[in-house]
Write a structure and sequence with these properties.
about 290 residues; alpha/beta; TIM Barrel; eight-stranded parallel barrel; two-stranded antiparallel ribbon; 10 helices; 10 strands
């Protein structure tokens, strides 16, 4: 029996719905948690009372808040913009602590899918990019400790931290119990790290603060990969789930649905249908049905 809870990221069309409707939908489908994004959890657009109520609505509906996704791209050539992004994430960390959210998802940058984003090695050196990342985490790590919130760093394709080997130096630099990872196996497999179960064990229970369930196939270059339906890519799900059991992981695994063409063309933009399809896939991969 798994010890972790299954959640769904409230993106797609869920981002346009009131939280009560999101929670009711996911609960009815069989999910145990919801991962909120800035569409619902935004300290600059909502009061602390509003954010606290969001967490309460989640609990009253029978779900847990798995984490809040508050990612900010730090690799930007404009110092003012970077400073503003650092401040936004700090506000999210502090707000999360105030309302009882246990984990917050952050990454490093740059985001290669955004036009005008600097390219590491062409527009900025790798050393400079790391300096930009450290400017953020030098403040975020101690702020998380003070707030009692765990930062879950997600390694994302094309970023400074994009897999096990590039994210580990960031985690080891701070050696904070509040700084760990959001392990998404799809990004590792895109750069050839297909031993997802072994990577789970390298990170271990103490450093995996949250998990994303997403598959992938291709290579980590724009236009050369897709995040297909769970089970269609190269993530070795049996080994992955087995490793989570082996380390005694008790957090949340949240489906991050990014099969965007399928979502648009087949599901016709229906987030609930994406969640319904995903929970069937997870259960069958787990052998629960």
């Amino acid at each position: 029996m798994r010890k972790w809870k299954l959640a769904f990221m409230a993106s797609l069309s869920y981002s346009q719905l009131p939280p009560e409707q999101v929670v009711a939908s996911l609960k009815a489908l069989g999910y145990e948690g919801v991962e909120w994004t800035s569409s619902h959890f935004d300290p600059r657009a909502k009061s602390l009372a509003d954010l606290r109520r969001l967490v309460e609505i989640t609990a009253e509906g029978g779900l847990v808040t798995s984490e809040v996704c508050a990612q900010q791209d730090l690799v930007v050539c404009d110092d003012r913009v970077r400073g503003e992004r650092i401040a936004q994430a700090l506000e999210a960390i502090q707000a999360a602590g105030e309302v009882g959210v246990k984990a917050i998802n952050l990454f490093t940058g740059p985001r290669p899918w955004v036009a005008g984003t600097p390219v590491v090695g062409r527009d900025v050196s790798l050393a400079t990019a790391w300096d930009m990342v450290h400017q953020g985490y030098d403040l975020w790590a101690p702020a998380a400790e003070k707030a009692g919130v765990r930062i879950a760093v997600e390694g994302v394709w094309g970023m400074v931290c994009h897999d096990l080997y590039t994210t580990l130096p960031l985690i080891e630099r701070y050696r904070s119990p509040n700084l760990g990872v959001n392990f998404d196996p799809s990004h590792d497999v895109l750069v050839g790290n297909t031993d997802s179960g072994d990577i789970v064990k390298v990170w271990g229970k103490e450093r995996i603060h949250h998990v994303h369930l997403k598959d992938a196939v291709g290579i980590a270059e724009a236009g050369k990969f897709v995040f297909p339906l769970l089970g269609e890519g190269v993530v070795p799900w049996s080994a992955f789930f087995g490793a989570l059991d082996d380390i005694g992981y008790e957090g949340c695994c949240s489906v991050e649905f990014e099969s965007f063409s399928y979502y648009r063309e087949i599901l016709r933009g229906d987030g609930e249908e994406a969640a319904r399809l995903s929970i069937m896939q997870v259960r069958r991969l787990l052998g629960e049905e």
